[in-house]
């Protein structure tokens, strides 16, 4: 597992901007990722089933079983890599691996610290009640989450703008990259919370850039 950029952060999202990027490949990535979308459709069905099982496990034991946790983390990792390659960021031309593992050499990475114990009371309300304010924000960011990949919304719009910038200037604007990754980071933090993998409430804060801010630097 990767060493988190920010010590003690429950959800760590990391992204490295690859270069040079193809001027035209982004136009056909929607075709290239179809095999991933098909696999992710079934993986997200399993993800939902596992989350329901974990709900009852937490309710009775205060623990998210290790094997189930690792599976759901793997689905989120896979989804983040596919999103980063395609229209969630267009930050790399390296084809994402068909893998539930951490893949530390891939430019998009995700780590979630598995808690030793989770709250029985929070598990009853956090995924539908406490997370509602974040869902409203994410609806604007993503246009909705469909089977583990993001389509539509602000994130896709920014990625498409980046694609045109690469086509005409051969450069991915750094500020645009930082913003796009920050929005994806917010999505993944909420996904981890809503799927019961952490009790740490996601901050209403846009942490931009490819790497997590140091915990001590966040106010």
Question: Any overview of this molecule?
Answer:
The protein is mainly alpha-helical and 219 residues long. It has helices spanning 29-32, 34-61, 66-85, 122-130, 132-142, 153-169, 174-194; strands at residues 11-15, 108-112, 145-146, 149-150. The strands form 2 sheets. The protein has a two-stranded antiparallel sheet. Helix 5 runs parallel beside helix 6 and helix 5 (132-142) packs antiparallel against helix 7 (174-194). The two termini are 27 Å apart.
Structural topology:
Elements: E1 11-15, H1 29-32, H2 34-61, H3 66-85, E2 108-112, H4 122-130, H5 132-142, E3 145-146, E4 149-150, H6 153-169, H7 174-194
Antiparallel strand pairs: 1-2, 3-4
Helix pairs in contact: 2-3, 5-6, 5-7, 6-7
List keywords for this structure.
mainly alpha, two-stranded antiparallel ribbon, globular, two-stranded antiparallel sheet, 219 residues, 7 helices, 50% helix
Overall strand count:
4
- Average residue pLDDT: 92
Strand fraction equals: 5-15%
Which strand order spans the largest sheet, edge to edge or round the barrel? 1-2
Number of helices: 7
Distance between the termini: 27 Å
User: How helix-rich are the residues, as a percent range?
Assistant: 40-55%
How much is the radius of gyration in Å?
17 Å
Q: What structural class should be given to the helix and strand makeup?
A: mainly alpha
Low-confidence stretches: none
Shape: globular
Q: What's the multimeric state?
A: single chain
Biggest beta-sheet profile: 2 strands, antiparallel
The H-and-E topology, N to C, reads as EHHHEHHEEHH
């Amino acid at each position: 597992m990767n060493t988190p950029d920010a010590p003690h952060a429950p959800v760590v999202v990391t992204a490295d901007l690859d270069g040079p990027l193809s001027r035209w490949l982004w136009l056909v990535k929607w075709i290239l990722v179809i095999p991933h979308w098909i696999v992710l459709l079934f993986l997200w069905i399993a993800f939902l089933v596992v989350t329901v099982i974990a709900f009852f496990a937490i309710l009775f034991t205060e623990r998210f079983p290790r094997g189930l946790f690792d599976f759901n983390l793997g689905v989120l990792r896979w989804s983040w890599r596919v999103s980063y390659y395609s229209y969630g960021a267009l930050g790399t031309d390296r084809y994402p691996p068909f893998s539930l593992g951490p893949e530390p050499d891939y430019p998009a990475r995700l780590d979630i610290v598995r808690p030793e114990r989770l709250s029985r009371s929070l598990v009853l309300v956090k995924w539908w009640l406490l997370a509602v304010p974040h869902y409203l924000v994410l609806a604007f960011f993503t246009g909705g989450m469909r089977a583990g990949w993001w389509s539509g919304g602000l994130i896709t719009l920014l990625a498409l703008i980046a694609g045109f910038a690469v086509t005409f200037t051969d450069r991915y604007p750094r500020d645009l990259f930082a913003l796009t990754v920050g929005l994806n980071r917010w999505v993944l933090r909420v996904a981890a919370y809503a799927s019961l993998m952490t009790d740490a409430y996601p901050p209403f804060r846009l942490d931009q850039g490819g790497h997590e801010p140091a915990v001590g630097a966040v106010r």
